[in-house]
Amino acid sequence: MIVRKSLLISSIFFITCGINSVNAKTSGSDESLRFNYKALQELAHNYVEQRVSAPDNGRVEVVANNLDPRMAPKICAQPPKVGLATNANLDSYTTIEIECVGKANWRTYVPVRIYRYKNVVAAASPMAPGQMISESDLVFSEVDLNRVRSNVFTDMTALIGARIKKRIAAGQAISASDTCLVCEGQSVTIVAQDKALRITAAGRALADGLKGESVVVENARSNKSIQAVVTGLNEVTVNL
């Protein structure tokens, strides 16, 4: 359930700290606040929403889990304390502790899910190992970053010309571990250059790399390993 921001304001008390959907009740000189299950969910939702940030050019969505609607409203003489439960953090899942300190002295926990969405580069159609990526193979797709286990791309140009290393389903986000311009074990051209000289040699890649990344390659003639920068498909460059 996504707890919305349409709020029920008590006819007796207006709580400026953002406590909504709360039934406040006064009995003689004893003032007490009543928190039903929806009010507790909203407290947890608002606490998290105010403390998480969306990724660049993305969005965040906070979902407070449903509490049992049959639970009796909880009564507190003052607004309860709201915070992270012990060992909880603001990752994809968290738990919010709501505590009434005083005569009532109760504590409730509300699980909350945090989604962080962003448009990343994905496969337009199924892709097979060895396939070279062209612009038509790529689309943008919104994904929950919490479910992506490795680096993904927001710029299509970084992938054009790279090769696919494993099968990718249509709509699946393409990660750095799925592709390579220079692929481990494959033959590469080593370019050694300065302003006036350009020399090429054959070599073998000892690691995967995309354009602009540094990889280790082995010179086929000398068998020496050197660091080089990926500059193209099966090409690395060393500046003299």
UniProtKB/TrEMBL annotation:
Keywords: Bacterial flagellum biogenesis, Cell projection, Cilium, Flagellum, Periplasm, Signal
Protein name according to UniProt: Flagella basal body P-ring formation protein FlgA
Any one of the GO BP annotations: bacterial-type flagellum assembly
GO cellular component: periplasmic space
Source species of the chain: Idiomarina rhizosphaerae
A Pfam family: ChapFlgA
Function in brief: Involved in the assembly process of the P-ring formation. It may associate with FlgF on the rod constituting a structure essential for the P-ring assembly or may act as a modulator protein for the P-ring assembly.
Domain of life: Bacteria
Entry's family note: Belongs to the FlgA family.
Classification via Gene3D superfamilies: 2.30.30.760, Antifreeze-like/N-acetylneuraminic acid synthase C-terminal domain (3.90.1210.10)
